Automatic annotation (TrEMBL):
SUPFAM superfamilies the UniProt entry points to: P-loop containing nucleoside triphosphate hydrolases, Translation proteins, Winged helix' DNA-binding domain
Keyword check for GTP-binding: yes
Name the record gives this protein: Selenocysteine-specific elongation factor
Domain Tr-type G: residue ranges: 1-169
GO cellular component: cytosol
Annotated source species: Planomonospora parontospora
GO biological process annotation, one example: selenocysteine incorporation
Places the protein is found: Cytoplasm
GO MF, any single term: GTP binding
Alphabetized InterPro entries for the sequence: Beta-barrel_SelB (IPR057335), EF-Tu_GTPase (IPR050055), EFTu-like_2 (IPR004161), P-loop_NTPase (IPR027417), SelB_WHD4 (IPR015191), T_Tr_GTP-bd_dom (IPR000795), Transl_B-barrel_sf (IPR009000), Transl_elong_SelB (IPR004535)
Superkingdom of source: Bacteria
Amino acid sequence: MHVVATAGHVDHGKSTLVRALTGIEPDRWAEERRRGMTIDLGFAWTALPSGRELAFVDVPGHERFVSNMLAGIGPVPAVMMVVAADEGWMPQSAEHLAVIDALGLGHGLLVVTRCDREDPELAIEEAQSEITQTCLGRVEAVAVSGKTGEGIGDLVKALERLVDSLPPPSADGPVRLWIDRAFTIKGMGTVVTGTLPSGTVTIGDELVLIPSGRRVRVRGLESLKRRVDSVSGVARVAMNLKGVELGDVARGMALVTPDRWNSTKTLDVRLRGATAGELARECILHMGSAATAVRVRRLGTDTARLTLSAPLPLRVGDRAIIREPGSRRVAGLTVLDVRPPSLSRRGAAAAAARELAGWPDPPTGGVLLRRHGFLTQDDLTVMGCEPAGQRVSGDWLVDAEHWKSLGAELPRAVSEYAERNPLTPGLPVESARQLLQLPDRRLVEALIRPPLQLKANRIHKTAAAPELPAPVAAAVRRLEEELKSTPFRAPEAGRLAELGLHSKAVIAAARAGALIRLAEGVVLPVSAEDRAVQILSRISQPFTASEARSALDTSRRVVIPLLEYLDGRGHTVRVDSSTRRMRAPGD
């Protein structure tokens, strides 16, 4: 299926034309038919001679219903610009064309109606002169009469050629359907409709309703009034939803594939259009069928930071309309970043303006990575970009230059920490993460290269063992002298303090390899390890903790952590819950 929207001035025959092409009345409301004017979106469809199905979204032309018009044009890939031969180019013709240009629609067709009333050539020439100045360029023009049927056959052929020119949508992409109608059907429940631009929806699928974040399940599907099990974009779709009430859905909400879209309230954009520089601070953003209040903060001559009143599922490269309420000023925009960094620092806005000025439209994954420094592969995919950069840990991708600068910063940070904390050398990994402003400790660990090493959750320099301050070294010597004849009778905390080994000194000495810290307040000379191995190797195997305590002439306070230390060092092996043996060669 393909979908085309109508556009043009009020009462120029858009609905009559759609009716002549499809045989379907697009004006759904009695008031529309009574007034002869479309005030809301209408929908109709037909089969082209090639067998391809073509749906029309008929939008209102009156200026009072511009929001409804934007909701209809926003999600579709092509437009049929309608101008009446007897009235020619009119104000709403220009406004609709400005919207088409702002959205960047590149596929269209000019249809001049009422050729039975007036020679269409002047209207065609006038309209083409306006259209060629936009992104549509020079389009094919067809003159028709909805009343007599003249030219309808030529229009059908032109629509076939328009459909041929449309790029094929991706059936495998993530779903984002902007809701344009919501209602209930007795016995079925809530039904929503919209234009599906790409992706595939199947009965039973789970989707997320934005902005509420509620998960819903597709209970039934219709396309062009036919029940289907699955439908792929581009298509007009009606979905019967399970798990949501009518009061919970409305035009402007979106249904999206879970975990595949970035729902955001802050974005950086590039503005386009003659009135882009005149927009007020408070505007309305039109994206798909959504109309959301936004606050505009100008950055550069054509860039801005938008803060939305409600989150929308957006991707880098999305095109939308921004409109000043109560004014005819509209501008187009391209989304540049859906997760922009904060502008709280002094000079941050000016720096962002300089940065964004050089970005391509739309930016690539490499450009986004250069700005953020590091993103996961999923981050870039959800943002709408192909993965780029250097993979360093797990699915983390980094910008090479930023990674290089972090690699130079970490050794300096380790050295500075050691200078400030001589008794506790080794920069904690979490401190390094915060200092380098990294989102994941795995990134810190990936940065560690010789002469740095990770030990006990701290980053050390390994070029030389940490040098002990003289008072701590002297205290260690006093401990060794005291335990010379009884190496396993570890002093209590009070005696350690008397020797000069308060808690920070003990930690520093242990990290320097000058003593063994078995547990809080339990320390032994380094020589105790070899002596314990010698003594325990001579007793009967296996042995209990009590037998080891007796052989080593120590207390239970010391022997339990000492045996666990020997286990960890590979000297002893547990036999069962109560006994150990010395590890034999080849174990």
